[in-house]
Fold this protein.
Amino acid sequence: MNKARQNPLNSFAAHAALITWTVIALFPVVVILINSFKTRKAIFREPLALPSADSFSTIGYETVMKQGDFFLYFQNSFIVTVASLFFILLFGAMAAFALSEYRFRGNTLMGLYLALGIMIPIRIGTVAILELMVQTGLVNTLWALILVYTAQGLPLAVFILSEFMRQVSDDLKNAGRIDGMSEYAIFFKLVLPLVRPAMATVAVFNMIPIWNDLWFPLILAPGEETKTLTLGSQVFIGQFVTDWNAVLSALSLAILPVLVLYVIFSRQLIRGITSGAVK
Amino acid sequence: MTTKSRLHIAVFLAPAVLVYTAVMIWPLFNTLRLALYTSGEEGRVFSGLMNFRTLFGDPRWSESFWNALGNNFWFFIVHMLVQNPIGVALAAILSHPRLRFAALYRSAIFIPTILSFVIVGFAWKLILSPIWGIAPSMLDAVGLKSLFAPWLGKEEYALTTLALISVWQFVGIPMMLIYAALLSIPEEVLEAGEIDGITGASAFWKIKLPLILPSIGIISILTFVGNFNAFDLIYAAQGALAGPDYSTDILGTFLYRTFFGFQLQLGDPHMGSTIATAMFAIILAGVCLYLFAIQTRMRRYQF
């Protein structure tokens, strides 16, 4: 049935175009990764060559390990991302359940109120957010970041999750009610397990922007103890501008965790985007 | 239902509403309010619209502001003209039925999008650096060495170069969204076109493109909002001074410098709020224009 749309020349051109862009997309990443394993001389003499027995060196990684607290930064990023995702999902799902399940006065208005934040970036409020965090003593704690990212992620989470919760069958919930389940039990035991795919989509959408954010760590938590990996590598690279081995290794180390996350979650992410969750 | 206690509704709503109100909505309005104050001898003094008069009237401020705003518009235009057409083209190719390795291409092309701005900014800075010589030697290989210039260091090229780097990073998002929209076009519609002799490129222009226009609208507004609060890439690649000579300064970096202070300049939360208010107005105007002028006029097709 697709014959009219199939022809070998077209398919050749299609692959050529896609391969070209794939090469453009991956080229910088590959250049950084291969050069991080080379000696300084080889980095400059043949930047595009793979590391050979001659030019192989891990001196950059040694510098990074000695100088930067990359393990601490990684841990901070990890705590912030996981905790924010937990609160976004828990609070977002609860609110989405209230909005989609119950009729009460102000329901639509509440939905609109919570949806406001989808289009308006939270960064606009930075001045007052910093002031709030100073007043509450949360500056330079990971809690400041967790709260901000939770607030930032909630609007879209509530929006997506309530769409999905409307599809959960009423009969199931009513059966639970007849069996004497409380509303809380219905939410946690019946509804949450059913919307797990939607929760995964929300989690994946939020994960990467939180992990990569530079603005709020820079402003709310720039202290040595609370630096995230993104901010930590920014500062580290800034200090070692002339030490190319160290810079390339630091970049590679910063790429690695995101790449691993992506490999684990890419199917979920792509399914989330293409299933129309953001339409 | 009505006789039961309805406390649980409040319990379900409370955490989200509290966090959202306290950390997002309240600070947002507080920032708009702070724009009306200045710091005087005894703390905060109400000063009405004076900050705005300074921002638009004082040549030192207004020059930086218009420079940042103009740069921001150029940044946005480059995204609209380069990122979105490439994204649509890639999606159109990818959605071709029976294309082999489609999943592989899709995943690979999306990789730059997941990298942080810090990585992207520095990686490109190194590649374009005349010291390392990757870019010049590659141009040399195709005989175009004379075209090379230290793009990030030249006032006339730096902003466009950064915009193109950002395009490189984010092309995956329009690609994915358009790809999803293209997949949702039912086969019957395309077959009906085929029977009428519309295939290949003309099928794309005459059938698919009109059907994905709503998605292109969404991408445009996402690009707009994203570009007008962009900061990270410029900061990572050029620093808070957005050099050379402020030629890559956009509203995000301008806000950061003003609010937080940089080098000799002292931070000023009230002028920072004023700039944030201006950004808020611009973004709100863009979103409203989209919601009322574009989205309502767009025809949606139900299958």
About this structure: Residues 3 and 33 of chain A are 43 Å apart (CA to CA). Residues 3-63 of chain A form one domain. Residues 70-101 of chain A form the longest helix (32 residues).
